[in-house]
Design brief:
It contains 10 helices and no strands. With about 180 residues, the chain is mainly α. It folds into 2 domains: about 90 residues, RNA polymerase sigma factor, region 2, helix turn helix motif (Rna Polymerase Sigma Factor, Chain: A, Orthogonal Bundle), CATH 1.10.1740.10; about 90 residues, Arc Repressor Mutant, subunit A, CATH 1.10.10. Helix 3 packs across helix 4 and helix 8 crosses helix 10. The radius of gyration is 18 Å and the shape is globular. The protein starts with a helix and ends with a helix. One of its GO terms (molecular function) is sigma factor activity. InterPro entries: RNA_pol_sigma-70-like (IPR039425), RNA_pol_sigma-70_dom (IPR014284), RNA_pol_sigma70_r2 (IPR007627), RNA_pol_sigma70_r4_t2 (IPR013249), RNA_pol_sigma_r2 (IPR013325), RNA_pol_sigma_r3/r4-like (IPR013324), WH-like_DNA-bd_sf (IPR036388).
C-alpha cells in the first residue's frame, strides 16, 4: 500500500489504513521523541498521543506536505504542550524504589484470567502478554479478556478513545513480534 493511498483511505476512516500508517511511521515518531526526551516511556506515550491526534485530525492533512513531517510536527507540539503543563502544575515524582515496588506488585499478582485459563496455548499467550509493558497489558486485558468496548476502555483509563485504539494496535503488534520471535 502506498502512503498517498493509505492517507486517502484513512481520511475515509479505514482502520487498515490507520494501522498501515501507524506501523510505517511509528519508529520515526518514537525515535524523534526518544532523542528529544531520552525516556522510553515518555517517548512512547507522546508517540501514542501523536498518532491519536493525527488520526483524529487526518482530514486536515494537506497533501502538499510530507506526511512524516506532519506527524513529527504534531509530536513536537504535544511535547511542548506537556512541558507547559508540567511547568504550570506541581507534579508528584515517583522515586525509583516506588516505581520498582509498583512493577513488582503488577508482576507478582496473578490475574483472574490466569486462574481460569488452563489450556496450554492460552497460558502461553498470557505469559507473552505479561512480557509487554504494563499499560499494554491493561489495554489487552480490558479489550480481549473483559471484552470492553473502546468507549468503555476510554472511560476506564480516562484517556481519549483514539489513544486507546493506538495503544491496542501497538500492543497487538508488539505481542505478534514476541510470538514470532519464539
Amino acid at each position: 500500500m502506498e502512503i498517498e493511498h493509505a492517507i486517502k483511505r484513512a481520511k475515509q476512516n479505514d482502520q487498515k489504513a490507520f494501522n498501515y500508517l501507524l506501523h510505517t511511521y511509528w519508529e520515526d515518531v518514537y525515535g524523534f521523541q526518544l532523542k528529544r526526551i531520552g525516556n522510553e516511556n515518555d517517548a512512547e506515550d507522546i508517540t501514542i498521543q501523536t498518532f491519536s491526534k493525527a488520526f483524529d485530525k487526518i482530514e486536515t492533512y494537506n497533501d502538499d506536505y510530507v506526511f512524516k513531517t506532519w506527524l513529527i510536527t504534531i509530536s513536537k507540539n504535544i511535547h511542548i504542550d506537556l512541558l507547559r503543563k508540567e511547568k504550570s502544575s506541581i507534579s508528584r515524582q515517583i522515586s525509583k524504589e516506588d516505581e520498582y515496588a509498583i512493577n513488582q506488585v503488577l508482576d507478582e499478582s496473578p490475574s483472574a484470567e490466569d486462574k481460569i485459563i488452563t489450556d496450554q496455548n492460552l497460558a502461553k499467550l498470557l505469559r507473552d502478554i505479561k512480557r509487554l509493558k504494563p499499560h499494554y497489558q491493561v489495554v489487552i486485558n480490558l479489550r480481549y479478556f473483559q471484552e470492553l468496548t473502546y468507549k468503555e476502555i476510554s472511560v476506564e483509563l480516562s484517556e481519549p478513545i483514539n489513544n486507546v485504539k493506538v495503544k491496542l494496535l501497538r500492543a497487538k503488534k508488539l505481542l505478534a513480534e514476541i510470538i514470532q520471535n519464539e
